[in-house]
Design goal:
The structure is a homodimer. The first copy, chain A, is an alpha/beta fold. The first copy, chain A, is about 45% helix and about 10% strand. The first copy, chain A, is built from eleven helices and five strands. Chain A has helices at about 5-10, 35-60, 80-85, 115-120, 140-145, 150-170, 185-195, 205-210, 215-225, 245-260, 270-280, and strands at about 70-75, 95-100, 130, 170-180, 235-240. A five-stranded parallel sheet of chain A has the order 2-3-1-4-5, with helices on both faces. In chain A, α4 links the parallel β2 and β3. In chain A, α2 (about 35-60) runs parallel beside α10. The longest helix of chain A is centred in the N-terminal third of the chain and has 27 residues, at about 35-60. The radius of gyration of chain A is 21 Å and the shape is globular. In chain A, about 40% of the residues are buried. The mean pLDDT of chain A is about 95. Chains A and B meet through α3, β2, α7, α8 and α11 of A and α3, β2, α7, α8 and α11 of B. Chains A, B: It comes from Streptomyces lannensis. Chains A, B: This is Polyphosphate--nucleotide phosphotransferase. Chains A, B: Pfam families: PPK2.
Chain lengths: ~280, ~280
Amino acid sequence: MHDQAPLGDLLRLPVGKPVDLSAYDSGATPGGPGSKAAGLADTARMGKELAGLQERLWAAATAGDRRRILLVLQGMDTSGKGGTVKHVIGHFNPAGCRIHAFKSPTREERQYDFLWRVAKELPRPGEIGIFDRSHYEDVLIAKVRSLAPVGEIKSRYVRINGFETSLTGNGVTVIKCFLHISRDEQLRRLLKRLDTPHKRWKFSPGDIDERALWPAYQGAYETALTRCATPAAPWHLVPADHKWYRNWAISRLLLECLRELDPQYPAADYDVQECRALLLAEEG
Amino acid sequence: MHDQAPLGDLLRLPVGKPVDLSAYDSGATPGGPGSKAAGLADTARMGKELAGLQERLWAAATAGDRRRILLVLQGMDTSGKGGTVKHVIGHFNPAGCRIHAFKSPTREERQYDFLWRVAKELPRPGEIGIFDRSHYEDVLIAKVRSLAPVGEIKSRYVRINGFETSLTGNGVTVIKCFLHISRDEQLRRLLKRLDTPHKRWKFSPGDIDERALWPAYQGAYETALTRCATPAAPWHLVPADHKWYRNWAISRLLLECLRELDPQYPAADYDVQECRALLLAEEG
């Protein structure tokens, strides 16, 4: 483990300042171990502590602790949202994780406010929730593709902030990560999907249309990251051209968060010696 | 990997014959590697193949394959249902697992038929669903504690069989495992929970009352395992006094099932070369 400033401080986007994505190097590895090998080793090393802290979070919830974590993953196609779930969330006991990948809204979901389907997938006390895409799509693709009127989109930033603030007030620590990749890196990853037979199912021709809108998406992200970075629920920008760094950084953000929460195994709310005696007596 | 008869054949309870649990040694390790060390090593070795097959199951579903797996875990308190989820399901990408631990029904759930809440938690195509307890509680604790009239319980066996048959007809492979532990082993595990401060949260005085009903529970299990072992959805009896064997055996059952399903990465339903050209042209 590194004795250094919290990674959260390093990756957190400033609140109240316009975000300029071009100012951030997607190939950087801020605060990271110096090499891929060191990064992989350090990530593996974090696994045990993460799993232990998760168990304590879960155990505490059985005694009324309402705290939980919500990890929100956003980023362009191929930025590694799914890979993060596989490699980082794989550290945890899956029984305590509530993972949801948000797709384009179903007919039922479209009948309701955009936050309706999100509220249903929130982590319960003691759980670690993971959103692969999220309510932010409703100010990203919705904006880029004009799926809602301009005034509606504008109001959503405000409603998102209100929603997330109410979550934090209800025991949810919200960790929002924007996985930042370069346009070139996306091209490499899309070509790799095409060139590898067992990866072709991950590709769809629609990905080409989305990629053509790259500048519009970057703009929509800049607006969302600017308007929805709040003290209660800040955004983190995770350079994600290096998969090992992305996994290391998000593991580390979760570790810092769990250490800060410092959940405790609850004390017995029953008489241990009496229960012991009862169990043994029954055997006689 | 062992070149031997499928473990499923070895652990599957015969269909149409009354089950006598006392005839099965909960400390046995049928078909297993000869030692704990070999069992742990073989379980770890299966991890990669399990994860690879799971990815193929998931990929196939994106192209319309509706197949999926439902693993049902039942057993007395401390028999290791939660441990199985942690150690066996931990092999998989958590994004493709749908895990649900059934607790005593909520007020809302009690308004409906007992299968209502179960249907909502079923795996979607491509997923591996895991039930930690299940609809079988409605013929186990419900019978032992007379939570429903006798006639209602009787009708439930039939409805369970109908329900599970309809699942298998809809692409769900149902793997039902009864984790068989001895009364002595339960005592050891309960005492360990009491004697280990960070395990005390797992214990509740109610566990003593349930344990006192051990014979009634064994009887209720025998009835359920007899009446609900069908060719479509058989029961497996997994001796579970040895945790390493339990994890090995369930990993192995899942592996045999996934190999049998043999899901395939779908072929591209688009023109790969054309997409490649489009992506590269755009860069010019």
